[in-house]
Amino acid sequence: MSPADALRIAVRAIMANRLRSMLTTLGLVIGVTSVIVLIAVGQGAQKGVTAQIRGLGTDLVFVRPGTSQDRTTGTRNQAVSLTKSDADALAKAGIPGVTGVAPQITFGGQLIAGSNNTRATVIGTTPDYAAVRSGAVADGDFITAADLDRKALTMVLGSQLAQTLFPDGDPVGQTVRVAVGDRLGFNFRVVGVMEERGGGGTGEQDAQAFVPVTTMQSRLSFGRNPTGEVNVQQINVQTKPGANQETIKAGITDVLAERHQVATPDFLVQSQNDLLGAASQVSTTLSILLGSVAGISLVVGGIGVMNIMLVSVTERTREIGIRRAVGAQSRDIVLQFVTEALALSVGGGLIGLALGVGIAIGVDGRQIAGQTMTTLIQPWSIAVAFGVAAGVGLASGSYPAFRATAIDPIVALRNE
Asked: Which long-range contacts (CB under 8 A, 24 or more apart) does 86-91 make?
């Protein structure tokens, strides 16, 4: 029997039992669809997180407060916050490869401009922040050294925030009132609007506002230190492209450890590459988990195919006997039933492939449960899903096929 004859017989057998064949392939359709969609969701999540981290800027190292260990007692305590003077010391330390340093304090507040108001993230920082975080001013100016010295009530708006608060006019020169908690803060004068950037690691950068860090300490009572220092939540360090960030991290650690006089660092130093690596590892694990869950449905679908093929062998015992009686060899019987199982599996795989790609494309960019979904269809996931479906069909059809060859032709001809 030629493969073409086997395929023709398989199609005829499938069409003779349309409903049963459709239900048999349903498990494989669901399995292939699930594999493609869930892997696309996992890869999309990885792409989104990576884009957010890269959206923070380029060639960055971040310093954040950690915990401290007392040299005398050895006990671990909450670390003393990083201060603006720590950032100044890093900027003056001359660490090879460092091109800029900018501290920041972040808090949420209600921003009010006339009849328009919105909740936004306000960042207290220094004039170097825009260059360190690869931002650019579209209109007006960024925070200046003079603003920092006189603790000025000046503010720079993200592009989206500017559009929300001043939809019909130029924000520069206008007044924005900041409300924090249950009390009203101060009126800030808008001096600039940032260029549109998109998402960042801590939220939408275009929905952020920027004020002098010294103003935040003195006027809004944020980060006050009994010693008069300005506490900060993070120090952003920009490095030269291609610089060895591990060496730079070691230099930062040496400078701050000397300043803080602690046995172990009371701060954490992480590079942008560290964050990307951690995010990639988590996303890869998520993709593997999602793909494994979807793969289970493929196995279940394969069991369904095997079950139906076993039933088919039992139902067609007389047909098998007739074929053997007229000269069909064992390999012809095996080819017949394996081809039928493959036809079911490959057909279900193709339908599942079309559905999976269609769903993944349809979901991309849509709001689901308050979250904007991002999907990324990987060619390898399509190949794996379709290959597994075909492999499952081959494996599921082999046992029933070889079982069919074991039937005695005389006994088969007697079967009613």
From this structure: 86/232, 86/235, 86/256, 86/259, 87/126, 87/232, 87/235, 89/255, 89/256, 89/259, 90/63, 90/235, 90/237, 90/252, 90/255, 90/256, 91/128
CA distances from 216 to 24, 143, 170, 178 (A): 66, 13, 25, 11
46 has pLDDT over 50: yes
CA distance 19 to 26: 11
Give the global pTM: 0.62
Cα 20 to chain center, whole Å? 40
Question: Cα separation of 17 and 340, whole Å?
Answer: 12
Please tell me the predicted confidence (pLDDT) of residue 289: 78
Phi, psi of 131 (to 5 degrees): -70, -40
Q: Is the pLDDT of residue 120 over 60?
A: yes
Encode 103-129: b = buried (16+ Cβ within 10 Å), e = exposed. bbbbbebebbbeeeeeebbbbbbbbbb
Percent helix, percent strand, percent coil in the chain, to nearest 5: 55, 25, 25
DSSP element (H, E) containing 238: strand 234-239
- Express each pLDDT in 301-311 by its tens digit: 777 777 777 77
How far apart (Å, rounded) are the C-alpha atoms in residues 30 and 36? Answer: 10
Give the position of tokens 């991002």. Answer: 374
